[in-house]
């Protein structure tokens, strides 16, 4: 059965930072949905039919749902933990909280709540780190599968430098990952990401097995962390004294490819940037986290200039908001500190098609092309009195988008559709 979703429709077909002809906008637009997919997009006058049930969101904007390419599922109750930078924050707050996810009942309850938070904030696909416990990944995949929501996720592999309750072993990490790939990768909309947490918490033996997994499953993503914090980098290099630099550790274990998602990627050497560009490895910018943990200022223009593809993500619970709007807000400010500009069209491209391209998934998400999933966000730029007041002066679509980017959060998300189904009641 087809249905029609009406509103002011916007999607991107090119990167505004690179191409003038980059988006399509229908002031009275419509999207026809069938079986969870988009079958047509265009002017309402051209697509409306008397037999089609219609959901009218005018005057709100409808875009492809936001994509969050780096978030930690077991950190729902870590967000807003006071006073520490990365390594202390992990030891004091994060590892003890992740230990709770050994309990399947806890993991299941949190999985539902996690997906509720994502859709409440307009996010329809996330790339998630789970805890080291197989149960945590099973709970997340199972909940996402039930909702027909596209999730990329993996249990973290970590076999040292953390409490026993969150450690696996090289062999256990390999076996659990194999079993999860078998059970979940390609099941409905679920995809597996091989997930060595970062070099500090993996022995060389575990990273070698991670490389083996990546070679055995070249269609799986690999996600980890790179050069987030100076103390982290020093500790990492002391653990791998042979490495030329931090990236070299992952390179020596066969992890560099266009499937590799490198969270943070802040304090990089020219050799690392060049190798990321040559291998297609992705940098993932996590602005609210980088400010909250005092980690540093991501160099978007430098990486772009060198040919590195970047995504932008929340990194909850180091990140402080599930909102990709708030993530774009803080991203704008970090780039200001670097003398760089994040134009609102580029920002909304990044959170949708740009992130989909960073994941190599732009054939199915991040755009409104017929054939892609009907994953949509409906945005209200007048959601709060302050936004409403500011909107009185907005003349252009770009101005409206910038108001959403700077002032918006979950209150500005009027509706979220996952596979054509509304999630907000
Ligand atoms: N590096 C290793 N683990 C983590 C994590 O959970 N959060 C952040 N921000 N950085 C990490
Ligand atoms: Zn992270």
- Helix vs. strand class: alpha/beta
Chain-averaged pLDDT: 98
* Main beta-sheet annotation: 9 strands, parallel
**What is the general shape?**
globular
Query: What is the helix fraction of residues, given as a range?
Result: 25-40%
Termini Cα gap: 22 Å
How would you describe this structure to a colleague?
- With 425 residues, the protein is of the alpha/beta class.
- The protein contains 15 helices and 16 strands.
- Strands 5, 6, 7, 8, 9, 10, 11, 12 and 13 form a nine-stranded parallel β-sheet that branches.
- A hairpin with a 2-residue loop joins β2 and β3.
- α3 crosses α4, α4 runs parallel beside α5 and α14 packs antiparallel against α15.
- Bound molecules: guanine and zinc ion (ZN).
- Guanine (GUN) binds next to α2.
Gist?
The chain is α/β, with parallel strands linked by helices and 425 residues long.
Record keyword descriptors for this entry.
single chain, seven-stranded mixed sheet, 15 helices, globular, binds guanine, binds zinc ion
């Amino acid at each position: 059965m087809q249905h029609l979703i009406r509103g002011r429709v916007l999607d991107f077909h090119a990167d505004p930072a690179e191409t003038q002809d980059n988006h399509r906008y229908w002031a009275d637009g419509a999207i026809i949905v069938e079986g969870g997919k988009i079958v047509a997009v265009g002017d309402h006058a051209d697509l409306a039919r008397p037999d089609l049930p219609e959901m009218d969101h005018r005057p709100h904007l409808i875009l492809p749902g936001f994509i969050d390419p780096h978030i930690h599922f077991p950190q729902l109750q870590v967000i807003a933990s006071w006073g520490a930078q990365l390594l202390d924050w992990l030891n004091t707050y994060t590892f003890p909280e992740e230990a709770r996810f050994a309990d399947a009942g806890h993991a299941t309850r949190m999985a539902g709540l996690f997906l509720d938070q994502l859709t409440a904030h307009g996010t329809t696909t996330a790339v998630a780190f789970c805890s080291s416990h197989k149960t945590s990944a099973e709970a997340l995949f199972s909940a996402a599968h039930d909702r027909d929501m596209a999730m990329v996720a993996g249990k973290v592999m970590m076999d040292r430098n953390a409490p026993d309750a969150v450690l696996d072993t090289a062999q256990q990490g390999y076996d659990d990952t194999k079993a999860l790939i078998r059970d979940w990768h390609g099941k409905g909309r679920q995809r597996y990401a091989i997930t060595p947490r970062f070099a500090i918490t993996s022995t060389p033996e575990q990273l070698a097995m991670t490389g083996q997994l990546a070679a055995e499953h070249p269609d799986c993503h690999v996600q980890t962390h790179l050069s987030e914090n100076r103390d982290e980098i020093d500790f990492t290099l002391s653990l791998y004294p042979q490495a030329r630099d931090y990236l070299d550790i992952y390179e020596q274990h066969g992890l560099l490819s266009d499937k590799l998602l490198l969270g943070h990627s802040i304090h990089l050497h020219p050799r690392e940037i060049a190798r990321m560009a040559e291998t297609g490895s992705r940098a993932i910018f996590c602005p609210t986290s980088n400010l909250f943990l005092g980690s540093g200022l991501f160099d978007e223009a430098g990486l772009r200039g060198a040919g590195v593809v970047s995504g932008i993500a929340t990194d909850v619970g180091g990140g402080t908001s599930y909102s990709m709007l708030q993530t774009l807000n803080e991203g704008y400010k970090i780039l200001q500190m670097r003398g760089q500009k994040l134009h609102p069209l580029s920002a909304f491209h990044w959170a949708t098609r740009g992130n989909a391209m960073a994941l190599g998934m732009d054939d199915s998400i991040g755009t409104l092309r017929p054939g892609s999933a009907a994953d949509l966000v409906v945005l209200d730029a007048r959601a709060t009195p302050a936004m409403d007041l500011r909107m009185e002066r907005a003349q252009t679509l770009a101005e409206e988008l910038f108001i959403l980017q700077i002032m918006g959060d979950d209150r500005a998300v009027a509706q979220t559709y996952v596979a054509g189904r509304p999630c907000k009641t």
